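Hi R.,

As promised on Friday, here is the backbone we talked about, encoded as structure tokens. Could you run it through your design pipeline when you get a chance and send me back a sequence?
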């Protein structure tokens, strides 16, 4: 099973780390699940939903750790996106990295997927 990624504002992620659980960003709470992306989808997700935002992190999670609450559902253009139908325990997160913006104004994913 692939590693999946959650992009979130730094402050929201810090609050989740303090609480030990990430319940979701406002869009996640409104939709009833936590939105994730695969490595192939993350750049487009950042460009579409986080354009111009500089204080972001990207959290890596092994999809197999999330069990039955993780559903792969069609979204943009029919592509299957991972959606988590429960809070994410911070202990399930494998790695958290800053997601900087490069000189070109795009988010810089260098070293994120290695």
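Update: got your reply. Pasting your designed sequence below so it's all in one thread:
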């Amino acid at each position: 099973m692939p590693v999946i990624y959650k992009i979130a504002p730094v402050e929201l992620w810090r609050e989740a780390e303090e609480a030990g659980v990430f319940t979701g960003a406002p869009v996640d709470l409104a939709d009833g699940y936590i939105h994730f992306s695969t490595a192939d989808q993350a750049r487009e997700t950042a460009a579409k939903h986080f354009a111009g935002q500089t204080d972001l992190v990207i959290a890596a999670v092994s999809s197999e750790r999330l069990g039955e609450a993780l559903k792969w559902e069609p979204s943009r253009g029919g592509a299957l996106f991972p959606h988590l139908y429960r809070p994410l325990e911070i202990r399930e997160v494998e790695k958290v990295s800053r997601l900087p913006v490069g000189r070109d104004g795009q988010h810089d994913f260098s070293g994120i997927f290695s």
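One thing I noticed while checking it: The chain has a mean pLDDT of 95.

Thanks again,
M.
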